[in-house]
Amino acid sequence: MTDILLMVFAAIAILGAAATAIQKNPYDKLISLGMLFAGVIPFVVAGGYLDVAISLALIVPITTIILLQAVWRCRL
């Protein structure tokens, strides 16, 4: 069961990376980066690095908000 879940998360991470490379709209790129991070965090947890996973879970949303504000200002 764990192997199946890891394959699913690997597929999510690969799809997120591919979508980030393809997208032209900055907002869509941020959504794709969110998919990429959502696919990577379970691998960090599976490796036993729970402190790093907690840090990622706190840092990624904050940086996403900062990047959204930066993209919004550049479009004006």
Describe this structure in words.
The chain has 76 residues and is mainly α. The protein has one domain (2-75). The protein is built from three helices and no strands. It has helices spanning 2-22, 26-46, 50-75. Helix 1 packs antiparallel against helix 2 (26-46) and helix 2 (26-46) runs antiparallel to helix 3. The longest helix has 26 residues, at 50-75. It is flat and about 45 Å long. The mean pLDDT is 87.
What distance lies between the first and last C-alpha atoms, to the nearest angstrom?
Answer: 48 Å
The multimeric state of the shown protein is: single chain
Total strands: the figure is 0
Secondary structure category = mainly alpha
Number of H/I helices:
3
Order of helices and strands: HHH
Largest β sheet strand count, sense and barrel closure:
none
Provide the β-strand percentage band.
Answer: under 5%
Q: Provide mean pLDDT, rounded.
A: 87
Helix content estimate? over 70%
Can you give me a brief rundown of this structure?
By secondary structure, this protein is mainly alpha-helical.
Outline the fold blueprint:
Layout: H1 2-22, H2 26-46, H3 50-75
